[in-house]
Amino acid sequence: MLEGRAVIGETDMLQTMQQDALDVASKALDFFDVSEATEIARFIKKEFDKTYGGGWQCIVGKDFGSFVTHCYGSFIYFYIGSLAILLFRGSAAPEAEGTAIQSVEA
Hints:
Helices cover 31% and strands 37% of the residues. It has two helices and five strands; from the N terminus they run E-H-H-E-E-E-E. Strands 1, 2, 3, 4 and 5 form a five-stranded antiparallel β-sheet that branches. The longest helix has 17 residues, at 15-31.
């Protein structure tokens, strides 16, 4: 795992889900080298799909921009060291599953 603690940049998740995201990211970094961003993202996404249901998206890297639409209560953007992690549950349309959606730039 990378040294240092996670720094949350933006989130609308409940505290318990935020902690799950940090724990899963830490676990991913135990399994994969920091240079394996795609594998880290895949691991985090699959863990959240198992725990919270499908539709999760994860982006991992050191330099990226984003503007995403997500279901309210399912967005977190954080850093562990110099590695940024964006995790959110996507939503294609406001009508999807009757949940509120929100767009955020990270």
